[in-house]
Design goal:
homodimer; 331 residues; mainly alpha; Cytochrome Bc1 Complex, Chain D, domain 2; 2 strands; 2% strand; globular; binds heme C; binds calcium ion
């Protein structure tokens, strides 16, 4: 609603902009825009917490360990390494643009980023801490309490505020201005001939049935293996775990394809090492279609135009622990 | 030499500055200055490599994992967590101001930062990779090769260039403008009464015998346990491992006390959890002196004035792996 109003008022102001909005509006994919946090102090605090390994039992693992913002918001490992080097059950999705997800996790079991953020801290296979201990650690650090005061009006530290702040920071992790968005916004030279052909193929062969909208996905749950079963040793059953319904077996959240160049390896089991492999498998099992090698190359070329500007900010400097801060227990 | 010339020329230019330099010159500790890298492109490349976990076998551990620049250039763990969660043998020293160390490591076995940087990559207990594999990974990434070209004139990737770049970046990790440096440079209000008394006690009781110079240490090897033996279960024997001499048993590089507020826990075994404990032990075993509680508090107050401005830079964005990049082997 807000977007449409915006477009109309712009149009009435300046007819020259009309073709841009018209062209984007006719496409199944829409550009994304930078987000200014509603409350910058909350987001700033959230950034610190996101980078703070003291939210884990070991003092070694932060959100950024597995969703590394130097590397597209993922760890680029098939399945993540958790506390004591436990092998994780599933591939870590990117946090980039995760504010646009219809729900969080591959099976959508968390309704939003705030609900999600409490999970990893207390997950014995990830950060292996407890909410009580995380709160105790943060509350023991006066400089953190000052940030809570600035952000929330009082220096009370609780898990609700911690996850609110982390989520607010994550909301800012938007990657605008990709080559593809430039093209959508009217710069017809932004894409090469191959990239454009790749996009046309992506549309015409039906990928946009599931990968559409501003996030190029992330807005529906779909069966993995529409025409042929997906073969994997990974035991995850997807959405069925949430709904209990047999028809939801192997239904997963359609991942965003924004920054997909950076979020290798692919699929919930991380078994597709390259984009070429992922595209080939998608075509075969979701669309019952066999692409030629050069068709795959063109689609991959298009997918790489979805890499946007990565969030740019100073490495946060964390306040030191005090004599009262519970010490990490790494071993 | 360079510093002295600088001071004299300034004096001749402006007599008003004389008291500042004169006061600093009479003190056993000198201020430190920000460093501009000789070759910014090399330092910039080094920053990326420093943050890149693909220099490790697992793809999970970077230099920044153990020398976290959000946390004073250390991991704040007694002894580090290495590849596959191995328990490290010794406490990780800070990389901040490490360019000022007379040699690298607690026992000084690496002569400089470049020689040091090759160590952890190939150390089976740390990053567990090989130099050959690290080179292969970096060389497989065209965007990295462009950075090598910009930095070194050609896009050849080898371990010599990798360690040169990391070392050049580390040289920039200087923390100027601490409260104590402001005081040294003439701002007599920079220290509180307690902090100043702490400094006087630090000098008068003999701490500056070992902790002196711009880094407040880092310029000599000294016996840990001059008057009384230091009790520890840690098997490290220090400099004796390098020289083979019995007299070097339990001789360690005197650590810098710059940013010591951030580099807890203390000593090579990480067994002193608080600065109070470390100061108390130092007094007892290095100076045969028993401080009262308020004396310790004052020295600690002084030590905290040695926290400088932390290096400030954008979180580096790393170029993605390609289909030819060897994949990490985390498990
Ligand atoms: C040990 C690795 C690890 C750590 C630490 C970790 N995550 Fe995750 N994260 C994952 C994995 C794996 C998943 C996917 C789990 C699933 O879908 O069942 C995930 C899922 C997510 C998602 C959902 C994304 C999506 O598209 O569904 C978000 C958001 C997220 N994590 C944020 C965080 C935050 C915030 C923290 C720190 C508080 C954190 N993660 C810590 C590995 C990790
Ligand atoms: C019927 C829905 C559907 C269609 C059609 C579809 N996809 Fe997907 N796509 C999904 C789902 C669901 C996943 C996640 C599956 C999983 O990980 O188990 C996915 C995953 C992907 C991934 C991996 C993303 C990641 O980060 O792991 C890529 C790349 C991809 N799709 C591209 C395509 C292309 C190209 C097409 C057309 C040839 C296509 N998809 C058609 C539903 C669909
Ligand atoms: C797994 C943890 C770990 C990793 C990864 C690691 N270090 Fe270290 N680092 C240590 C420990 C522990 C020591 C002390 C070893 C000793 O003195 O014997 C050390 C020592 C150093 C020193 C010497 C500092 C001094 O005061 O003597 C420097 C400099 C350094 N590391 C830089 C790096 C760089 C650069 C990298 C990446 C290429 C790196 N480290 C990776 C744990 C690590
Ligand atoms: C005779 C030399 C000597 C004297 C005198 C001395 N120190 Fe030290 N100091 C060392 C050495 C060597 C170490 C490292 C020992 C180790 O880790 O095994 C050290 C370590 C420390 C540390 C821990 C630093 C860290 O990062 O782990 C602190 C704090 C410290 N000294 C403060 C003091 C104070 C305060 C005094 C005076 C009361 C003092 N020292 C006197 C040699 C000395
Ligand atoms: Ca992935
Ligand atoms: Ca330490």
């Amino acid at each position: 609603m807000i977007k449409r109003t915006f477009a109309i008022s712009l149009l009435s102001l300046s007819a020259i902009l009309a073709p841009i909005y018209a062209s984007a509006a006719n496409e199944p994919i829409q550009p994304i825009k930078a987000v200014t946090p509603e409350n910058p102090d909350v987001a700033e605090l959230g950034k610190m917490l996101y980078f703070d390994p003291r939210l884990s039992k070991s003092g070694f693992i932060s959100c950024n360990s597995c969703h590394n913002l130097s590397m597209g918001g993922t760890d680029n490992i098939k399945t993540s390494i958790g506390h004591k080097w436990q092998e994780g059950p599933i591939n870590a999705p990117t946090v980039l643009n995760s504010g646009m997800n219809l729900a969080q996790f591959w099976d959508g079991r968390a309704k939003d980023l705030k609900e999600q953020a409490g999970g990893p801290i207390a997950n014995p296979g990830e950060m292996a801490f407890t909410h009580e201990m995380a709160v105790k650690v943060v509350a023991s650090i006066p400089q953190y309490r000052e940030h809570f005061k600035k952000a929330f009006g009082s220096d009370t530290v609780d898990i609700d505020r911690i996850t609110t702040a982390i989520a607010e920071f994550e909301e800012t992790l938007v990657t605008p201005n990709s080559k593809f968005d430039q093209w959508l916004e009217g710069d017809k030279n932004a894409l090469s001939a191959d990239e454009l052909e790749g996009y046309k193929l992506f549309k015409s062969s039906g990928c946009t049935q599931c990968h559409n909208g501003p996030a190029v996905g992330a807005n529906s749950f779909q069966k993995m293996g529409m025409f042929k079963p997906y073969e994997t040793k990974n035991p995850a059953v997807g959405r069925m775990d949430v709904t209990g319904k047999e028809e939801d077996r192997f239904v997963f959240k359609v991942p965003t394809l924004r920054n997909v160049e950076l979020t290798y390896p692919y699929f919930h089991d991380g078994e597709a090492a390259t984009l070429e492999e992922a595209v080939d498998i998608m075509a075969k099992i979701q669309l019952n279609r066999e692409f030629k090698k050069d068709e795959i190359a063109k689609i991959v070329a298009f997918l790489k135009t979805l890499t946007g500007e990565q969030p740019k900010f100073d490495l946060p400097i964390l306040p030191p622990s005090t004599n009262n801060t519970p010490r990490p227990q790494p071993f």
